[in-house]
Here is the input.
Amino acid sequence: MAQWFTLTDAKGRIDVDRGRLLLALRWVYNPTILTEAEAADDTNMGPPFPESVKDHNRNKKANRIQVYVVRGRGLQVMDKNVFSSGGSSDPFVRLSFDEERMETKVVKKTTNPMWMEHLFFDRVLSMQSKNIIEVEVSDRGSE
Here is the structure.
């Protein structure tokens, strides 16, 4: 699912045009890749997986959330140019999912950055978690 998101302040308000962000989100679940608990439990429904499959997938995660940070458009000017009426920004995107945080690279001197970066969260979704990915666009040097 790819979608443009209008950037808001921390309280969700759109009182100032902060720009837009194009993200694509994908959840990947591969039932042949067992979690550690599933691999140890021989009472799972269905036929048991051969030991070779369990060994092959031992270090892989069963669930992966892939966020593709594509680009930003019309981001706020954070670095004013004293010699003209314009300015730029050095934006990057920070994603937070529960306690895990990831960042894109910084794209220098633009308010229309192109990141084209895949960021991954490997995890099992749970009812104890909010299962919300928080997205923040920041300017390097203004943090």
Observations:
- Helices lie at 36-40, 51-56.
